Amino acid sequence: MNINDYLKYSANIRKGNRLFIVSIDGSGWEGALSQGRNMEEARMMAREVIYDYIEGLVEFKKRIPVPAVIDDGSRFIVDVGYDTALKIMLRNTMTDLMVRPSELARRLDVSNQRLNSIMSFRKTTGLNALADCFNALGKPLCITV
Q1: 12 and 32 belong to one structural domain
Q2: Cα-flanking dihedrals φ and ψ of residue 107, to 5°?
Q3: Is residue 51 within 8 Å of 61, Cβ to Cβ?
Q4: What range defines the domain where residue 59 resides?
Q5: Do both 61 and 95 map to the same domain?
Q6: What is the mean pLDDT of the chain?
Q7: Interior angle at CA 62, CA 119 and CA 99, nearest 5
Q8: Tens-place pLDDT, residues 67-87
Q9: In sequence order, what E strands does 16-115 have?
Q10: CATH number of the domain to which 49 belongs
Q11: What is the domain count for the chain?
């Protein structure tokens, strides 16, 4: 997995009858929809719909798909940040290895509450904590330049 694959998302924002409609591009992102009263609110909702959709996939133990980024000037590009991209990669690794959060918490010797805080998409998490999670899964985090 490459972090760049999960770092940016593109959102199609189009004007409806009364609202601006937001949809996230890419296979597996069908249904990732939101709306805003104006363009500024629609852009804010683009980030929120990504987080909401990811949280729904996690709840149903589904893999988080790689977004299709269409950067042709007609789309709004959402950069979710490195810690969120790493958390997506971590969740996908856990899904692939069939490791439940409670098992990862046990391997890390932390409470389930602490692990939930580390893995929350709406909170910033330090790189060391995320690296510890990957290590506990037997998939050491590797950063290259």
Answers
A1: yes
A2: -65, -35
A3: no
A4: 7-79
A5: no
A6: 94
A7: 60
A8: 889 988 889 999 999 999 999
A9: 20-24, 33-36, 76-79
A10: 3.30.160.250
A11: 2
Kindly state whether residue 113 falls inside one of the protein's structural domains: yes
* pLDDT score of 140: 95
User: What is the maximum alpha-carbon separation in the chain?
Assistant: 53
Residue type, 48: E
Tokens of 47: 């980030």
CA distance 105 to 112: 6
pLDDT in tens, 11-47: 999 999 999 999 999 999 999 999 999 999 999 999 9
Q: How is residue 44 annotated by DSSP?
A: H
Q: Rounded to whole angstroms, how far apart are CA atoms 59 and 56?
A: 5
- The pTM assigned to this predicted structure is 0.89
If asked whether residues 132 and 75 sit together in one domain, one would say: no
- Written as six digits, the tokens of 49 are 């719909």
**CA distance to 20, 72, 143, per residue, from 47 (Å):** 14, 19, 25
Amino acid at 82: Y
Is the pLDDT at 96 greater than 90? The verdict is yes
Residue 118 and residue 89 in one domain? yes
What is the C-alpha separation between 132 and 39, in angstroms, rounded? 40
